[in-house]
């Protein structure tokens, strides 16, 4: 931090408390927390991130590694190009974002097909491709996929550090792979 801000003549650094009321909406503090969380997940779990609005899209950094065998078993091919659109690359991945509910912050995950190279011309083909890949993902297959990503993102409950520094302040996360479920009222 000192090296990054040295040119600005800043001489005093301090810690800033993040109040939970600032996490209830899409604030700078929540954005900073999301950035640190994404960095720690990608650093520890073999993933690459792509920022997309208030969601971070995570894809396997090397989809050929053995750690992705279970995902490949569940969904088939993990990356490729959309037929007829060599500029449109797709990856099996997950969207991760933070949301406030039940008086606490939740990590929301959404398994999805992630694209690189989308343009106005190929957007419809990308949507069709993603719909075709996900049409059979409901009930048991979708639960298994959510469970896979929850375990992957949570790193089996191990401590994950955003920067891995030992001589300063670091963002440290320990996530649970337990998922929250919802169902229709009256069921």
Plain-language structure description:
The relative contact order is 0.14. Strands 1, 2, 3, 4 and 5 form a 5-stranded antiparallel β-sheet that branches. The chain has one domain. It contains 5 helices and 7 strands, in the order H-H-E-E-H-E-E-E-H-H-E-E. The protein is globular, with a radius of gyration of 19 Å. The protein is α+β, with helices and mostly antiparallel strands and about 190 residues long. Helix 3 runs antiparallel to helix 5. Strand 1 and strand 2 form a beta hairpin.
How many H/I helical runs?
5
- Unreliable stretches: none
Overall pLDDT score = 89
Number of strands: 7
- Total domains: 1
- Gyration radius (Cα, Å) is 19 Å
The first-to-last residue Cα distance is 53 Å
Q: What is the H/E string?
A: HHEEHEEEHHEE
Helical fraction equals 25-40%
CA-based shape: globular
Strand residue percentage: 25-35%
For the report, how would you describe the main beta sheet? 5 strands, antiparallel
The chain-level structural class is alpha+beta
Descriptive terms for the model:
27% strand, 187 residues
Summarize the structure.
The chain contains 5 helices and 7 strands; from the N terminus they run ααββαβββααββ. With 187 residues, it is of the alpha+beta class. The N and C termini lie far apart (53 Å).
In terms of topology, how is this protein built?
Blueprint: H1 2-5, H2 28-45, E1 47-52, E2 55-60, H3 69-75, E3 79-82, E4 85-101, E5 104-116, H4 123-134, H5 140-154, E6 160-161, E7 172-173
Antiparallel strand pairs: 1-2, 2-4, 3-4, 4-5, 6-7
Helix pairs in contact: 3-5
């Amino acid at each position: 931090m000192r090296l990054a801000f040295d040119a600005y003549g800043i001489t005093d650094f301090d810690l800033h408390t993040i109040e939970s009321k600032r996490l209830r909406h899409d604030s700078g503090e929540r954005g900073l927390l999301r950035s640190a969380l994404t960095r720690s997940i990608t650093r520890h779990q073999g993933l690459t991130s792509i920022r997309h609005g208030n969601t971070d899209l995570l894809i396997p950094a090397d989809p050929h590694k053995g750690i992705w065998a279970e995902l490949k078993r569940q969904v088939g091919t993990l990356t490729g190009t959309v037929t007829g659109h060599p500029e449109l690359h797709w990856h099996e991945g997950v969207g991760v974002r933070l949301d406030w509910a039940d008086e606490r912050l939740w990590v929301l995950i959404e398994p999805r097909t992630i694209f690189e190279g989308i343009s106005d011309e190929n957007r419809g083909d990308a949507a069709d491709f993603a719909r075709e890949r996900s049409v059979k993902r409901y009930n048991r297959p979708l639960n298994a996929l959510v469970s896979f990503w929850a375990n992957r993102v949570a790193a089996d409950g191990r401590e994950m550090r955003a920067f891995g520094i030992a001589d300063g302040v670091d963002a440290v996360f320990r996530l649970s792979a337990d998922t929250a479920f919802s169902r229709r009222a009256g069921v």
